[in-house]
Write a structure and sequence with these properties.
Low-confidence stretches: 8-21
Distance between the termini: 45 Å
CATH superfamily: Cytochrome c-like domain
Shape: globular
Helix content: 55-70%
CATH class: Mainly Alpha
Number of strands: 0
Radius of gyration: 17 Å
Structural class: mainly alpha
Mean pLDDT: 87
Order of helices and strands: HHHHHH
Strand content: under 5%
Number of helices: 6
Largest sheet: none
CATH topology: Cytochrome Bc1 Complex, Chain D, domain 2
Number of domains: 1
Length: 102
């Protein structure tokens, strides 16, 4: 029983550590999101009804969408080009930035 508890505790610690390691940095995301502001607004509110609001969206949703555009699973000629050069860290940071907006 003790071995099972220790194994579960170790797995929990590793999961929490891994989650913390991949969390985005909103300050770095703000710098990377400068180009995003042209359509999505510097305040996270889309400049037209065709551009979605990003302000306050869930970080996991935003990151998932950026990755989908980069992989080509989600198609949009503008967004596919915009995310092409972004690293996973860049996408996590941008997602953290827009998610942090209230």
């Amino acid at each position: 029983m003790k071995k099972q508890v220790l194994t579960l505790l170790a797995a929990t610690v590793l999961t929490v550590s891994a989650s913390s390691a991949i969390a985005g940095d909103a300050a770095k995301g703000k710098a990377k999101a400068a180009a995003c502001g042209a359509c999505h607004g510097t305040d996270g509110i889309g400049k037209s009804p065709t551009f979605p609001n990003l302000k306050g969206q869930k970080v996991t949703y935003l990151e998932k969408q950026l990755k989908a555009f980069k992989s080509g699973a989600r198609k949009d000629p503008i967004m596919n080009g915009q995310v092409k050069a972004l690293s996973d860290a860049d996408m996590a940071n941008i997602a953290a930035f827009y998610s942090s907006m209230k």
